[in-house]
Amino acid sequence: MDRRAFVISTAAAVLPWRIAFAQSGWRTFEVTTRAEVDFAEGVSRVWLPLPLAEDTEWHRSLGSAWSGNAARAEVVRDGKYGVTMLYAEWPAGQAAPRIELTSKFSTRDRAVDVGRPDANAKALGPAQYAFYTAPTEWIPTDGIVRDTARGIVKGASSDIEKARAIYEWVVDNTFRDPKVRGCGWGDIKTMLETGNLGGKCGDLNALFVGLARSVGVPARDLYGIRVAASAQGYRSLGVGTPMISKAQHCRAEFYAQGAGWVPVDPADVRKVVLEEPPGQLAVSDPKVVAARKRLFGSWEMNWLAYNMGHDLALPYSKGPKLPYLMYPNGETGNERLDQLDPDAFKYAIRAREIT
Amino acid sequence: MRQGFLAALLLGWAALAPAQALRAWSGGTAPPLELQDLDGGAHRLADYRGKTVLVNFWATWCAPCREEMPSIERLRRALEGKPFTVLAVNVGESARVARSFADTIPARFTWLLDRDTQTAKAWRARVLPASYLIGPDGAIRYSALGALDWSSDEVRKTIQGVMK
């Protein structure tokens, strides 16, 4: 290709993207995570989740930048799930380790009409099908999980019908427990065995994923953080301030032939029940009914997606695996910092909309 | 006032940051790089075969990117006349925004635009600044994540070693 031809072809490739981007509801945000180790003892390490690496129809990462006094920083990945994170390290004796990560990304609302086949839906290959129906360390797909799921999907034939049945069951049988720290770790076997089906998104959406996988419906959790208020009128499903240090939220998807990956969020239905003013709404409340209908097949994208990973071993750490990476993590002197306590760790996460 | 304070704090952090290091590359062959400059001219990494090339991914909103730019220019001047060039790839911003920054610093780089961020993603430049040192044979020899003092003797000697 000569240079003139290259210029023309490049311009042709870029222009439609720019026009489409401006016209199709994309919003751009900046999220800044500032982490500090207050009482450093020995080598200090911090792991910060990065925005989802893959471009999708609803998310585009525009890049990240870091500053601070780390002696070493690098982007590292967890092999099995490809979770990427920024790793920073300080030697023993470093006073006041600190790092600030700024990430820019664009999102737009996402909706899938499961009643209308999508000719452009990507097929799921056998390897991916196996991957997204496999158990994780915290999400088994046998025993009580499979027995429960089989009872739920009795009479359902398609993957969409099975997923719908599981979604309705999770909404009807679980509750949001405000006493759970963070988002909950998703120990779904214990939840089912004890009959205590209270939790938060990390529990309730993991329950959806485990039940779906156990009956052969590919499903996955996505971990992220809310970055803005809900434009759909739900005070409980957004953040009202730029400070979002405790706004982590995970969601779920299932895969259906002809529809592709379908977004769902039964945990947010239960959040509406508990928290939407005036609080403790009945399941029959119009706000709950609307949220329940909307959250099977759509996500409002006032939310940053980080990753889909489970059972993460943090690189360079000898500490225990994490069920997922949704919070800043750190350790000093080989002792893990409390990722669920931003004030003690300490870290602060801020968000602002740029466009 | 508050924004000014935060900006000053950020710059202060960047200034205090210890020097990152060039790291020997073990990540495989260089992905393609075919981009336009600020005036619409086409550039391909392959066109620079025979030269040592510093590919620097940056953005105007990235404080450490802005911080290290003057040292890259000092490096370029120190190697002037030698087969060395700098491709400064702006990630995700418009020509107008990139030019507004480029015009503020007296740097004679080749300023390229990765408007849709696909080149940065292909190069796995997920955190900025991300820099790659390409040898005369077109292979990546070193990389750096984060701001670096490119005008240091150590870095210059490493680059001169690649040029041989």
CATH level-four homologous superfamily name of chain B? Glutaredoxin
Quick one: biggest sheet of chain B?
8 strands, mixed
What global shape of chain A is seen? globular
Number of distinct beta strands of chain A: 17
Query: Order of helices and strands of chain A, N to C?
Result: HEEEEEEEHHHEHEHEEEHHEEEEHE
Radius of gyration of chain B: 15 Å
- How large is the count of helical segments of chain A? 9
CATH topology of chain B: Glutaredoxin
The CATH architecture name of chain B reads 3-Layer(aba) Sandwich
* Percentage of residues in strands of chain A: 25-35%
CATH C-level name of chain B: Alpha Beta
For the record, give the distance between the C-alpha atoms at the N and C termini of chain B, rounded to a whole number.
Answer: 51 Å
- Average pLDDT level of chain B: 88
Oligomeric state of the chains? heterodimer
Which value, in Å, is the CA radius of gyration of chain A? Answer: 21 Å
Q: Strand portion of chain B, in percent?
A: 25-35%
Could you state the order of secondary-structure elements of chain B as H and E?
A: HEEEEHEHEHEEEH
User: Between the first and last Cα atoms of chain A, what is the distance in angstroms?
Assistant: 37 Å
Number of E-type strands of chain B:
9
Q: Tell me the number of structural domains of chain B.
A: 1
What features would you highlight for this structure?
heterodimer, A: 355 residues, alpha+beta, five-stranded antiparallel beta sheet, 9 helices, 27% helix, 28% strand, globular, disordered N terminus, B: 164 residues, Glutaredoxin, eight-stranded mixed beta sheet, 5 helices
Break the fold down into its secondary structure elements and pairings:
The complex is a heterodimer of chains A (355) and B (164).
Chain A: H1 3-23, E1 27-36, E2 44-49, E3 59-68, E4 72-78, E5 83-90, E6 98-107, E7 110-111, H2 126-131, H3 143-152, H4 159-173, E8 175-176, H5 188-194, E9 198-199, H6 201-214, E10 219-226, E11 248-256, E12 260-264, H7 266-275, H8 286-294, E13 298-299, E14 303-307, E15 329-332, E16 335-336, H9 342-345, E17 347-353
Parallel strand pairs in A: 8-9
Antiparallel strand pairs in A: 1-6, 1-17, 2-5, 2-15, 3-6, 4-5, 7-13, 10-11, 10-14, 11-12, 15-16
Helix pairs in contact in A: 3-6, 4-6, 4-7, 7-8
Chain B: H1 2-16, E1 23-24, E2 34-37, E3 42-44, E4 52-58, H2 63-78, E5 84-91, H3 95-102, E6 110-114, H4 118-122, E7 127-128, E8 130-134, E9 140-145, H5 153-163
Parallel strand pairs in B: 4-5, 5-6
Antiparallel strand pairs in B: 1-9, 2-3, 2-6, 4-8, 8-9
